[in-house]
Write a structure and sequence with these properties.
By secondary structure, this protein is mainly β. Helix content is 6%, strand content 38%. It has one helix and ten strands; from the N terminus they run αββββββββββ. The longest helix is centred in the N-terminal third of the chain and has 8 residues. Bound molecules: zinc ion (ZN).
Length: 138
């Protein structure tokens, strides 16, 4: 299994706290500063309270795989042949069910992702960037 190496999109600073959390080994999610409702992907304007700001909260680094797919041919621009295959998973944190965070599955030898599999955050360095990744909990 490989790791996709590409820079996360930083057109805005919207996701910066998320990636700063990963650097510290924390899983962070955006929430409304007024009512506390979690929002993922972080919106530029909160629909629950448009005047409120986004708070970033550290949530459980453990959860379950909601869905997954294994990428065997990269569609990223450039030459990424050495980075496949890798498995992209959607993870629901125990603290925020229904918010699904796209991540990389860090498989052990011979291990495959399964829906409902318990996983723990294990951020991975990919080139100059850190990516959200999870490994199975034994
Ligand atoms: Zn709100």
């Amino acid at each position: 299994m490989g790791i996709p190496v590409f820079p996360p999109r930083f057109d805005t600073d919207l996701l910066k706290p998320f990636y700063e959390g990963l650097e510290k080994g924390e899983l962070r999610m955006s929430a409304c500063s007024t009512c506390g409702e979690f929002h993922w992907y972080p919106p530029e304007i909160l629909h629950c309270h448009p005047e409120a700001k986004i708070d970033w909260r550290t949530i459980s680094p453990e959860g379950v795989i909601y869905s997954f797919t294994t990428v065997t041919r990269s569609l990223l621009p450039g030459d990424h042949r050495d980075e496949v295959p890798f498995t992209v998973i959607l993870v629901e944190s125990d603290d925020v069910p229904n918010a699904r965070i796209p991540s990389i599955f860090m498989a052990r030898e011979g291990q495959e992702a399964e829906c409902g599999m318990r996983v723990r955050l294990s951020p991975v360095q990919a080139g100059e960037h850190i990516l959200p990744a999870f490994e199975a909990i034994d």
